[in-house]
Amino acid sequence: MGKTLIFGHKSPDTDTISSALAYADLKNKRGENAEPARLGPVNKETQYALDYFNVKAPQLIEKVDADVESVILVDHNEFQQSVDNIQEVRIAEVIDHHRISNFETKEPLYFRVEPVGCTATILNKMYKENDVAVSKEVAGLLVSAIISDSLLLKSPTCTKEDVDAAYELAEIAGVDLEKYGLDMLQAGADLSDKKITELLTMDAKEFAMGGERVVIAQVNTIDINQVYHQQAQLEEEIDRSIKEKDLGLFVFVVTDILNSNSDVLALGRNKDKLEKAFDVELKENRALLEGVVSRKKQIVTTLTDAYSE
Amino acid sequence: MGKTLIFGHKSPDTDTISSALAYADLKNKRGENAEPARLGPVNKETQYALDYFNVKAPQLIEKVDADVESVILVDHNEFQQSVDNIQEVRIAEVIDHHRISNFETKEPLYFRVEPVGCTATILNKMYKENDVAVSKEVAGLLVSAIISDSLLLKSPTCTKEDVDAAYELAEIAGVDLEKYGLDMLQAGADLSDKKITELLTMDAKEFAMGGERVVIAQVNTIDINQVYHQQAQLEEEIDRSIKEKDLGLFVFVVTDILNSNSDVLALGRNKDKLEKAFDVELKENRALLEGVVSRKKQIVTTLTDAYSE
């Protein structure tokens, strides 16, 4: 049996890395030949979790090699968020919790998307379905993923299933959910040493909306002003990215994890779509979106609506 | 809680009708407000199953009305195979066993596609997952769907899961799998009273391939010559359909259920794609495809390859 590679999206976050590691672990325990991989650098938050539970990051890949028989996508399904040569490989499975878009296969596959807050929550269920016990390390990774995606269970994307899984996994992992969660989020929210380009790419996703390419990049922080200290340089770099990829819109979302708001910076010829979507007026290209913390549930959906009107 | 409508693809077959009925039954038993529906006439094979188990066909709908809160797609996911106003409705779930293509939502949903031979096999599993017993009637519908999609467990799409489910369900339904299966298939294979247009639409699906629209219509028979007796009229009607919808290719697949072969009739400007795909030469627009019985696994995949070369 050939090798199966399991990976999440580009600009990997904690759910993407943890889900790849956990699903490879589950596959291996079922006697299947699977290896986890990642499509980009490990961010600080994820590194905190990996260090805490003493787990090695998965291998970095730029493309899927010819000796790989099939791939499994976790935590994403849209091809533009996946490995560059995704169209050339056989996709055996998808395990995800995002909207479905720009995905296509020739053959039937195992495709499991559930409307929960985190891929890790689905994987926790899959361990049970397969009667495989979750180890302390894997439990630590999975609970870290839930904390990350739900901003410690506060995001509107967070469901009862996520909450239940988080408490269950925290116990197996031997951590206090609140304390560990805040420590991990703060490790990730430390942006002080980030270069401008890093801020804009560390958690950036591209979407197709109304025939336009839209990039939405997000960072979490406990100090919004510190991030916007360099607004001019951020704008310069965003403009470069817009020209290079012919984007209709670039939205940089700076989320205040303590107060659950986002201060966004938007550039591009479709700036009016963002203003229309959230009924705000951009001032110096920025607007405060009260109560908005979820890219998936609060930004992508609202913006997609504005594009399709 | 608003109403949820559950339906399968256009030109409904036994899996589409049975899955809509069964999933609505499961939802109702879980206390949810769901109604089955269908997008076209009930074919003879399905009618045989409905009559045998004394179940009423689901309601016929042409579009989803405004009072419907959400819809669930069973046995399909490609929008061109679904209800005409599918883009205007909220899709809550998809339960399917086909390739994924031309499907998109704004929001996350419950999307479950498994590489098995029949949607009914997934539904049988879902009854178990939900601890709901399958009634004799529903078992009868589900086993009929498996028999239909697998041509009595003979199609290459048929997996071990389908076989196990078929025997299990046949027992609950109180039928002999072989005997009931052959009777049902023969009821469906009786094409003697079909008009030309019916033959071409009773199980027709449209696909997007290489930027072209391709229709593949399939009928099962125990007498291929009887179907092609009227080849000239079939071609006339297919030509009309090609012009009307600007199709690149129309493939009419006549499958001999006793010998597991298909004799296909192909028209359209992309006829060469079929010849290339199966390495055959069309004679009088026809070719015998030895051992080919599955549109999904043997025709769509091979043809898609030919279009993408």
UniProtKB/TrEMBL annotation, chains A, B:
<feature type="domain" description="DHHA2">
    <location>
        <begin position="181"/>
        <end position="307"/>
    </location>
</feature>
<dbReference type="GO" id="GO:0004427">
    <property type="term" value="F:inorganic diphosphate phosphatase activity"/>
</dbReference>
<keyword id="KW-0378">Hydrolase</keyword>
<protein>
    <recommendedName>
        <fullName>Probable manganese-dependent inorganic pyrophosphatase</fullName>
        <ecNumber>3.6.1.1</ecNumber>
    </recommendedName>
</protein>
<dbReference type="InterPro" id="IPR038222">
    <property type="entry name" value="DHHA2_dom_sf"/>
</dbReference>
<feature type="binding site">
    <location>
        <position position="75"/>
    </location>
    <ligand>
        <name>Mn(2+) 1</name>
    </ligand>
</feature>
<dbReference type="InterPro" id="IPR038763">
    <property type="entry name" value="DHH_sf"/>
</dbReference>
<feature type="binding site">
    <location>
        <position position="75"/>
    </location>
    <ligand>
        <name>Mn(2+) 2</name>
    </ligand>
</feature>
<keyword id="KW-0963">Cytoplasm</keyword>
<feature type="binding site">
    <location>
        <position position="13"/>
    </location>
    <ligand>
        <name>Mn(2+) 1</name>
    </ligand>
</feature>
<feature type="binding site">
    <location>
        <position position="149"/>
    </location>
    <ligand>
        <name>Mn(2+) 2</name>
    </ligand>
</feature>
<keyword id="KW-0479">Metal-binding</keyword>
<dbReference type="InterPro" id="IPR004097">
    <property type="entry name" value="DHHA2"/>
</dbReference>
<feature type="binding site">
    <location>
        <position position="15"/>
    </location>
    <ligand>
        <name>Mn(2+) 2</name>
    </ligand>
</feature>
<dbReference type="InterPro" id="IPR001667">
    <property type="entry name" value="DDH_dom"/>
</dbReference>
<dbReference type="Pfam" id="PF01368">
    <property type="entry name" value="DHH"/>
</dbReference>
<feature type="binding site">
    <location>
        <position position="97"/>
    </location>
    <ligand>
        <name>Mn(2+) 2</name>
    </ligand>
</feature>
<dbReference type="Pfam" id="PF02833">
    <property type="entry name" value="DHHA2"/>
</dbReference>
<comment type="similarity">
    <text>Belongs to the PPase class C family.</text>
</comment>
<feature type="binding site">
    <location>
        <position position="9"/>
    </location>
    <ligand>
        <name>Mn(2+) 1</name>
    </ligand>
</feature>
<keyword id="KW-0464">Manganese</keyword>
<dbReference type="InterPro" id="IPR022934">
    <property type="entry name" value="Mn-dep_inorganic_PyrPase"/>
</dbReference>
